[in-house]
Amino acid sequence: xxxxxxxxxxxxxxxxxxxxxxxxxxxxxxxxxxxxxxxxxxxxxxxxxxxxxxxxxxxxxxxxxxxxxxxxxxxxxxxxxxxxxxxxxxxxxxxxx
Length: 97
Known about the structure:
It is a single chain. It is built from three helices and no strands. The chain has 97 residues and is an all-alpha fold. It has one domain (2-96).
């Protein structure tokens, strides 16, 4: 029962990180296509906050992955890795019940 609770907590944290990655992706697209202006204080605050939260997680992945030019695949690798981790924890939680 304790492991299932830990699985739920880890699953919740994984969901938060995945949502932050999606927010970072959408915001980077909006900034790139000049839909929103980075000089807007609100947009800049959100951009810096999301990057401050995700950069410590994404930087080690960026060091491992090959350079693909303008496209950064590290957020995709992070989401895939987190989903694999979630599946592993889910199977372990199911096996202990």
